[in-house]
Amino acid sequence: MEENKNKTGHGLIFLIGFMGSGKTTLGRKLASRLGYMFMDLDHIFEAQEGMTIAEYFAKYGEDAFRQKESELLKGQPYPEHAIISTGGGLPCFFDNMDWMNAHGKTIYIKLTPKTLADRLENEKDQRPLLRERHGEALVQFITEKLEEREIFYGKANIIANGLSLTAERVEEMLRY
Ligand code: S3P
Question: What ranges do the domains of the chain cover?
Answer without folding.
Answer: 2-175
